[in-house]
């Protein structure tokens, strides 16, 4: 029987679901899968993106772990594609590769002053509070008034983590440096800005409602933002999700704190709609001092246009949460405009000719762009895998498909890779760190320590 030796690069949900779907698929050949990730621990953004105070979503890790624990997928953690392994290496040892490398960087926001001191990408802050090993350990939460730009779930995650009192995050898996950073926070006001109206937001009702339940945080909405046009009224009446969002926001209009008057909490979380950021102003030392935004209004076609009215909110820090962006991989086509690997339903295409690149596939956020929930990566993987199965005639013909070749190559290159047993060791270690504090786990952040614990050194 023919055998498919498959490399999957990226052990986030997209990569793990792809492996699972292929192993369970009806097919006329055997399969052996090697799964690579440049991090010493698996699960991608489920571990390093999903907010620590969302344990139910973090719990998806249990299902992903069950897939790995079946034992029919070989794991190589702490191996970076493009550095420790190249496309040519993979061609020599596999029949095909699936890239599932996701996205970790912030999309740009091109306004004057955006690079000032105190202006950050939300993705970097997320990586800090979720204990990603490759980001700085310190985060200066020294601002009283902070702007978050964006109207998606990541903007709400960032605003919530900033507004929440540190002791209310202590029950989570946050590492000690994050706890200390949040405890030192000077924040009193978090302002979230969206270009469009309450009926056009991209966040989901559950994430929004949660904001209203934060202890000692007043939700501040402004009456002027609720003068709905016809399109907004139709959206509220016809779309259940928009209807629930509207209901939540309207309930906050009845609370003390509306229009920023009468609230009693020590922190406030303001939602500003119809607000298009136009400039970040700085003080004499070049530090963020204010956000200038233009008031917008609906254009009657589902979009917005500027009204010309400029307003200014004093802030000392700013986070742009306007989307994630994928990173190019050496030797692999890349669409610089959209931050994805160009592909047709997961079959990778040459950038200019649009012709297929045999043996190379993509799935997850690097395939379709950084939108959608974890569950969407499953349907993504199904599409990619069905092409991989049908493309048998164009798979690579490796010169050395033996399973021993890859560990030998990595050892020769001095790569300290981690395997499934190592991931179990790290998992048990983190759970043990949390136990004395009655927490489910405390994350290890330092990459060398992660590797040492995983390798039992
Ligand atoms: C802040 C944030 C919060 C979110 N919250 C939720 C939520 O509450 N609920 C929900 O359903 N979804 C949520 N999502 C979306 C969810 O995280 C994504 O849908 C999902 O993680 C995408 O999966 P992926 O496997 O494509 O990418 P990722 O999860 O990013 O996995 C990619 C993997 O590839 C690895 N990799 C990258 N480059 C290389 C390389 N060169 N060599 C080797 N390995 C590499 C990375 O280390 C990573 O492990 C959130 C996303 C973000 C950013």
TrEMBL record:
Residues 5-172 form the FAD/NAD(P)-binding domain. FAD binds at residues 14, 45, 365, 372-374. GO terms for molecular function: ferredoxin-NADP+ reductase activity. Keywords: FAD, Flavoprotein, NADP, Oxidoreductase. It catalyses: 2 reduced [2Fe-2S]-[ferredoxin] + NADP(+) + H(+) = 2 oxidized [2Fe-2S]-[ferredoxin] + NADPH. It is an enzyme of class 1 (oxidoreductase). NADP(+) binds at residues 151-154, 195-196, 207, 372. Coiled coil: none annotated. Its cofactor is FAD. Pfam families: Pyr_redox_2. Belongs to the ferredoxin--NADP reductase type 1 family. This is ferredoxin--NADP(+) reductase.
